[in-house]
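Project standup — Tuesday

K.O.: blocked on the structure for the chain from last sprint. Re-posting the sequence here as requested.
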Amino acid sequence: MSPNATSPHVPPLDESPRASEPPAGPGAPDTAQGETAQHETAGPTGSTPSAESREATGTRPPGPWLAPLTTAGQQTQAMRVPTGPPSAPDDAAPAATPAAAAAPAATPARAGGPATDPVASPVTGTPAPDRTPAHSAEAAEAAEAAEAAVPTEAPVAPSSPGIDEESRGGAVISARTQKTRTPRSRRAVAVVLVAAVVGAVLGGLGSLLAGPSYSTESHVLWNPAGVQYADETVNADPNLVERQVTDQVDVIMSDAVMGTAADTLGTDVEDLREEISVGVATGSSLMVVTGSGDSATAAADATTAVTDAYVGYLRDNGRAVLNQRADVLQGTIERQTAQLAELDGQLTALNDQLGGLNPTTAAYGAVQGRIDRLATQISDLTTRSADLVDEQETLRANAAIFPGEAFVLQQAEVPEGPSSLSPAKAALVGAALGVVVGACVVAFTTSRSRSGGRGHRTARTAP
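H.V.: unblocked you, prediction finished:
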């Protein structure tokens, strides 16, 4: 075996040129035979040996003289070792390992040294291909052509006609949506702006035409205990009191109260009733009388007139009730006075009769008994009549000082400013309402258009 021959079990570590030329011996092949084998392997055109020839000879193309592969996948594919065992020249030669088959059998001489014959493969005995510059250039060109022929991107599998058609339809719809989205957005903004402007104009004009409005209020407390002057039995039932307070609202808005207030102001009852509103505080007998007018003075005067008319109505009504009861007592007193006068006459007659009788007779005793009974009756009637007179005097005294059942806790004041919105504020409120209305209109039309477009697309894609 030649000294430079590689052991079939230990593959060479690299493909660098050897330090010395291979010695001539019986194991080294002749130069002419190597060239003949090289030309037969390369083919008639002198190109790089094909894959079939490499598999037949068990040799691999020289790696260091080829152009480097560009991608890792191509390099891995090029460096892949055949799985089948290479053919051996004789039965005595052991099977080559993948590493030994991939390694070159001979290297050129040292740079500057004389050219030497290629060394035969230690495994197969086949002469190594020629590594002259001409063959190296041809191998590089072949590698570049193979690299250009390898696709850099994986081919895309064609999709089915239905999917392509659906994709094209979706692309067309997306393009249409993109084209119509901007005009729709502009129209929506325009609608909202127009609605805001219209609302602002209407609000401002409405405030200017209506003019300023002023309002003020007064607080009136209704006291059910005030009826004790007219009725000694006062019902303390809270439910009854609540119903009575609710009834007082109707009393304020009645023609009796409004008529008196209208006479005081010199206005019509219905016009005044439209300017007055009454509310009741929850859980109490406090009533709030609110009046409005074109001016601050008119609002205060209307509220004050209605409040005073209500309080005066209750006061006068209570006094009238007291005087009425006093008048009723007057009739009783007069009847009792007449009865007393009659009894006094009877008593006088009996006394005269008693004077003409003998005190020792029975008739005298009978007349005396009648006189005693009549005197007692006259005394009782006189007492009752005196009590009625005292009650009558009390009722008339109470009627004179009766304050009424309602008390003014807060009198109406002249307002400092209008209670209505100014034209500027009314315009802002109108603009806000216009924006809300415009947004609702845009949302409604957008939903309608989307539902219509969805139905159209469904009809198109239906089989």
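K.O.: great, moving the ticket to review. Residues 31-149 form one domain. Residues 1-48, 55-59, 62-126, 153-168 have pLDDT under 50 and may be disordered.
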